[in-house]
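Hi, here's the filled form for the chain we discussed.

Project: internal
Contact: R.S.
Residues: 669
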Amino acid sequence: MYGSVVLKSVAITSVYDGQEHGLFMEKLDARIRNHDREIEKMCNHHFQGFVDSITELLKVRGEAQKLKSQVTDTNRRLQDDGKELTSSMEELQQCRVQQRNIATTIDKLTHCLPGNTKRVLLCVRYYPALRTLEQLEHTCLPRAGQYRFCSIMAENIPKLRTQIRDTAMTQLRDFLESIRKHSDKIGEAAIKQVHKTHADTVPAVHELLSLWAVKKQKGGRRMDEEEMGEEVPGAHDLVDFSPVYCCLHIYTVLGLRDVFENYYRKQRRKQARLVLQPHSNMHETLEGYTRYFNQIVGFFVVEDHILHTTQGLVNRAYVEELWELALSKIIAALRTHSSYCDNPDLVLDLKNLIVLFADTLQGYGFPVSQLFDMLLEMREQYGEILLKRWNITFRQVLDQDNYSPIPVSTDQEYKHYTSQFPLQDPELEKLPFPKKLPFSEFVPKVYCQLKEFIYACLKYSEDLHLSSTEVDDMIRKSTNLLLTRTLSHCLQYAIKKKNVGLAELVQVIINTTHLEQSCHFLEEFISNITNVPPDTANATKLYGTSTFKDARHAAEAEIYTSLNAKIDQFLQLADYDWMAAVQGGGTLDASDYLIDLIAFLRSTFSVFTNLPGKVAQTACMSACKHISTSLMQLLLDPEVRQISMGALHQLYTDVKECESECRHSAYFS
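And the returned structure, exactly as it came back:
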């Protein structure tokens, strides 16, 4: 390439140096024209496409101008909107920062300021307004001079104060109506908390003595958190008291505090009367009593909170006066409505509810000893209801009994019955199976029912703040009533009812003998559950021994009576021929009726084998004496005017037969 450049340079130099310059220029011009023609041809060939391209470009430029205008307009609007959004975002950010700062400040003040100061924050809307009105009235308006607008403003200031006062009073009325409707919820929450505390730390009955001694020393004062186990939720957790605080503050600023105090106390007294009025059907269900107690607890929880969070709106004397009024009405209502109840389970549930009610209010400092005194009165009613229920139970047991010794075929059956009744008979244990227990079914059933009654009495004694000795005495007295009144009457009913055979009466004697022997086990059972030794001084003794002994004596007397009545039936068949002639030769046979009577007595006396010897011997002696007396009455009957020797021989033969039978009887040997 470098060589061609050199050649071209030499050629051009030779053209300018020689004489061919003009020719060269002509050739060059011709060459240029040829190229121009070629270019023109080429341009002519592509001109239409060029024109079309230019036209398209012109169109594109127009569209581009329009698009540029739209983009410019859109950009301008976006810029304008973006400025507003940016401003709003900056304001939002600033507001959130302020909100966070306010929340932090309130939280810090809440923890730093005294508890009662928190309620001042609730009055922030009205208090500055009142202060502003005061400043305007006493400072600003006098300085402004005697202008008409000043006088108008001065005239409106009292109206504004009245408006603020009325607004606060409206909120207070709404508050009073709200707590009237929701006092049962407040009370329910407080009682539930006490119930939870009881469920976590319920002592046994015998452990209540020391706890109650401590409580009695503390009296009716407010219990602290350690005594309550867990703090009962305050009313402030359930109710917004700001309307009370706000209204009290406003009336205080306005110099009308006495007016507000009188109004508040008057309204709350009215609400107390409504709360203390029980529903007419409250006694029908436990829910009725629960609702009644919840409302009362809710009322006094609110008053207790007001007492401790305001200075003088209510005082201790006012609250105690309300409580004394409430206590008298509560006790009267409970006495009336509980007297309609004949269900021991409902009475027991009611007692537990009253205990919770009393413990809840005691936790707020209210004296509740009268409620526990009333529960002791209710215990008498509870005992009477239990006696009625057990009277039905005992009668069912006695009516359903077959009055036959219990057959047992296996050791499992034997242990089943001996676990229900404390049978101690080494000789019976040695006997092989199958064998029979000496008593019938009603012995273990009656014994188990006696224990169930004792448990029922114990349940009522729980949480009554009684000592172990008091509980033991209460249970023993109730059990004695069950034995001497209820069970004794049931046994007498079973003994004296119609169609009771001698075999049944014999089994009753055997049964009552075993029950009598089990009385000391009942004594031990009561001592074990009350933790009071049976030999404690002045301890009440059970009357079970005398009860079963009296029943046994009644059964024995009934046996003698029934046996004599049966003998009379046979003697009525006696038909002596008082004028009979003397039979010659041979011996006389005893009368037919007497032979039947002796056969009956033999069969009957065989049933007495399980009776104590004295009872069986007395029955035999009673029967023989009755036969003797009856035969003598036949002989001395006023209607018998003459007696032949033949009749006397027959009567003598019958008497000798009776004498022989009695002599050979096992009970006279």
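Let me know if anything looks off before we file it.
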